[in-house]
Every structure is written in C-alpha cells, then in structure tokens.
Amino acid sequence: MQIVSAALTDLGRRRPANEDSHVSRPALGLYGVCDGMGGHAAGEVASRVAADAIESFVQHTDGVGRDFTWPVSYRPELGVDGNRLVAAFTLANRAIHQRVIDEPALRGMATTGVCVLISQAGLKSCSTTNYERGGPRVAPDAVVAPDPSPLASSPVVAQDPSHLASSPVVAQDAVVAQDFSPASQPGAVSALVAHVGDSRAYLWRAGYLEPITRDHSWVEEQISAGVLSQDEARTHPWRNLVTRALAGADDPDVELTPVTMERGDRILVCSDGLTSPLTNSAIAEIFARTPMGRPEELCQALVDAANNAGGPDNITVIVIEVS
To answer: Domain limits at 7?
Structure first.
C-alpha cells in the first residue's frame, strides 16, 4: 500500500495575516492543523507554538512503549499512540502558557488543534509520498469548485455528522468507550484522530464524506440538544464560540477517535476557514470529482472553493490518501 499526502495553507480573502499552522510529517505518520485565536499576531504565535510542540513530542516518542517516562499520567485504555497524542496536546497547552508568561502582551491567545497519527505498523506496511508548497510547511495546485452556501464572514460553523450516516466511520463522544488498538485486518491502516476545538477531520470512503470529529463549539452543543438547526447554527451570532481550546490554562480535554483506513480512503484535516464557507455537501462534491492519486489538486480545489465562497478566514487543508 501507499500513503500519499499533500498540504496547503492560504490567507483567504479577508484576513491580513495567516493564523493557521500545520504539521505534515509522513515519516512520523503525523498530520495536523492548528487555528490560532487572539488577534493576528497572538493567533499566529499560539498556533505555531502548539504545532511545534505537538510535532516535537510525537517525534521524541517515535517507537516508545508504555514504560516511557510520560509527562502526564499514562492511560492504558488509550494505548501508546493515544497517550502520545494526549500528552502532545497537553504539552502544547503548557507551551502556550509559558509563552504568555514570557510575553504578557500575548495574554488571551489560544488555538484549536486537530491531528491524525498513523500507527507505526501501518507506516511500515506502506510507502509514503508528500507534496508541499506555499509556505513554511505548505503545499499543492489545481481546480475550482464554488459553493452556493450563503455564509459571509464567520470562521466557525458546526456541522451535524448525522446526515452522512451511511458512511462507515462515526466520531465518538466518550474516549474510554472506544477501541484504540491498531487495526489487525490485512490491507488496513489504523490511525487516531485527536482534536480540541472546531478544526476538523473527515473520512472519504466509497463516495461518502463522513465527519470524524465533532466541533467543540457552543452551536454544536445547541444542535445536539435540538435547540438550533443546522441552518440556524450557520448564521448564529455565537457561531464562533469554541468550548475547548489550547489556551494555556488547565490541561485540555482531548477527544480521540480511532479510524481504520482502507485502500481508496482519504482523510481530510482542515481549519474552519474551509468548513465555514463550504457545506459538507459542497466539500464532498469536490472530493467526488478529483481522482485518487492527486491530493495536491484536491487541496487546491478545496482552497479555491473556499475563496470563491468569500474566503472569510485563513484556509488550511491536508489530504491523506491510501492506495
């Protein structure tokens, strides 16, 4: 099998600076996006500090076992990779706290985070190819797919994962109720998705786009409670309010979701600069018309579509394909 990936980040049409940061490390099986908050200078710092801390810890723990000296309490039910991700996010949060102590002017900065970590067993069974262009850790080129959805400038809109129920993967709520052990079936690659906030991951399989993550946001909570509809959430004045973030305060509540990737699958990791102006259906249409083996074209098509829909925020996308 082969894992092919591409990453692209873009300023968008309305922001003076790019507050997104991303990590794309195929050799580690690590792909992540952080979306900074707190004003353009502070947001850039928060997302970069978090992305660097996550990447550093995942690299430092490559190949370790549960007997490693963990910086946070080891939770056996999460497995080694689950603990690596939870610890990485926790250290990222602490790094933000330390940066604010060192530079008080940055007080109030925070960032979301979403990461995919492919198991070492999966990496050993695959070759990897990565495409990067356009910035410090950025990539690709190609196509346009405008979206008719009416959202103007909101960077966050929670989506309801239930409308794609026919797809095989559903993000879970409770970490401890899930199986985090690597996939054992031949021809499959196991991965874990960790997230805090409203940056997202999706699985594309057999013509369906399924959200892997569920936004940690006020509007998503209202949707789940039946208080708001999807349409109401997309235009609600509190649509930008996240309920979890890496903000340098208490250790973060990191949500983990196991994913088994098969041949023909794609995973999308993105900031809300993509999902705010584009509906899930519009994103799925772009996936459907972009052939496998061209993740750089798919990244560019997604960014172009978000910009054509107004580009209200910075846009960062990573596509990972298994072939």
So the answer is: 2-322
